[in-house]
């Protein structure tokens, strides 16, 4: 997923940033409710 280069690098990086923030939020929430 991270290895492939996309033509729209701007949208790709913003989408990756949103995904990373969402994953971090899920990890923090899981550790909080655990």
From TrEMBL:
Keywords: Membrane, Transmembrane, Transmembrane helix. The chain crosses the membrane at residues 12-33. It comes from the Bacteria. It is found in: Membrane. InterPro entries: YjcZ-like (IPR010070). The keyword Calcium does not apply. The keyword Aminoacyl-tRNA synthetase does not apply. GO terms for cellular component: membrane. Its main location: membrane. It is a single-pass membrane protein. Belongs to the SscA family. This is Conserved hypothetical tiny transmembrane protein. It comes from Pelagirhabdus alkalitolerans.
